[in-house]
Amino acid sequence: MKIRSDVLRTYQSIHTWTGITTGLLLFIAFFAGALTMFKPQIEQWATPPHTQLSPIAIQDYDQLIAKAVNQYDKAADGFKVNFAADLSPLTWYEKGGGRGFRLDDSLRHATLDDDGNITTQLSTSNELGELIDQLHRTAAIPGKLGHEDIGVLILGLAALLYFIALVSGVIVLLPTLVKSLFALRQHKGANRFWLDSHNLVGVVSLPFHLIIAWTVVVFAFHDPFYGGLQQVYGEQTMFEPRAKSDIEYSVAQLPSINEHIERINQLASDYQIKSMEYTKLSSTAPSLAVEVVANDRMMRGGYSDYIYLNPYTYKVEFSTVHQATDGLYGDIVNSFFALHFGNYGGGFTRWIYFSLGLLGAFLFYSGNLLWLEKRRQKQPLQKRSVRFMSSLTIGICLGSMLGVSSAMLATKWLYLFNEQINQHYLSCYYLIFFAALIYSFARGAAVAAIHLLKLLALSCLLIPISSLLTLWVPGLTSWAPADFNGGLIELMALLFAGLFYLAAIKAQRRTALGEPNSIWAIEPKVSSKLMVNEI
């Protein structure tokens, strides 16, 4: 296929600048997004086993609930029933709760002992998985605009430019697509190999990237979309408002768990009930949020579907479980969510999305490296703009990964000193991230890349070592040996430790044996006069 050279240059320029302006933000989003594919497993791994109480038989839940609401005022307001064997059968918030994300919620766990007496304990909810998800959604950009996170809106704009970069990149590749797509030409130099790798990853995973780009735009700007549709609807309401009730309900009237389970099974017969959360039980607006799972379905939530109903009348207020009456609109909405979350197809699909997320992060990182190599000059000292961008790339990309790995490493040790660990997670991430960024500018990209990669390898290696040490450290001995999910997380940490160490060795070798006129060569010391006269 032939395309005029001036057209190719135009699209190459579009691809370059849309990519370079969004690549670093999208690197963080994709790297963290890959981890969120296993958010529940990460939170389970990060939570001390002793905070979860023993499960009970299904027929004992009503007895447990009755004892809890009679003895604890907060439980009478609302509680959550968990059916998973590795979670406490009943929990409620003593502090916090409700919608929104907080770092200091206090959760009380409850179960029944062998004599049928209620046993409870208070703990802080571990939000490591949620914080990684927040990093994925906002790139750790703080602040809100109205009720929306500023980081979400910025990533929405980045996704729009990212879509343009995808389309323009494909157009640039079209003339040589068939001939050079799978040609990884190592013998033609590192720059050609990086370009071939970048092109291969981009084309092979193109459908995934198109899905992610458009779904992020929809997630970020759904309010303006609905605002535009409201102009079409005029005075007619787009969605039926929830009918207000004058009836004051009491928790004493609450039907049994079995009655609620029977009703949910009627509404979602192919689903498995994961949890049931009751809120505002003694009010005119009580609610029951039921989390249901079907791994062979496209689910609207990240890991499940939800059914909201009145716990006293069983009237369904809202449901994400697809029904035949939902029509085309329901199919489209469910598809947007499920295709972004990768929650269909069970664990196999999650591993595919995990791999594609990491490859996406590589795509943006390699794109920045290609931009830098294209602009380097054949002289020992590179232009200030090239040095700035190289330090920024290394600092942000490696700093964000080091921040997350350090937070994971600190998890079990933080429980020795402070129960309120979620704020420490946040502090740990920002401290490590900005320290890496400052170090990258202070030492230059070449030196910083080697040192930060070695630190990444060390932090990942220490994660499973820390788990072994908890068997002997006083105060942590109650941390049971890892289960399958926990062991898998630590095995992946070992794998990444090896990959980061190999990358560090390769970067170190390149400083000695690679092209001397490069940002990856150790920068020579220059006089202040040369610095002043530099272009």
The proportion of residues forming helix, as a percent range, comes to 55-70%
Question: Regions with pLDDT < 50 over 5+ consecutive residues?
Answer: 526-535
Mean pLDDT: 85
Radius of gyration: 26 Å
Specify the number of helices.
18
Report the principal-axis shape.
globular
Organism: Shewanella pneumatophori
Protein name: PepSY domain-containing protein
Keywords: Membrane, Transmembrane, Transmembrane helix
Transmembrane segments: 20-38, 152-178, 199-221, 351-371, 392-415, 421-441, 453-472, 484-504
Write structural notes for this entry.
The protein is α+β, with helices and mostly antiparallel strands and 535 residues long. It has a domain of 160 residues. The protein has 18 helices and ten strands. It has an eight-stranded antiparallel beta sheet with strand order 4-3-2-1-7-8-9-10. A two-stranded antiparallel ribbon has the order 5-6. The longest helix is centred in the last third of the chain and has 34 residues. The two termini are 40 Å apart. 35% of the residues are buried. The C terminus is likely disordered.
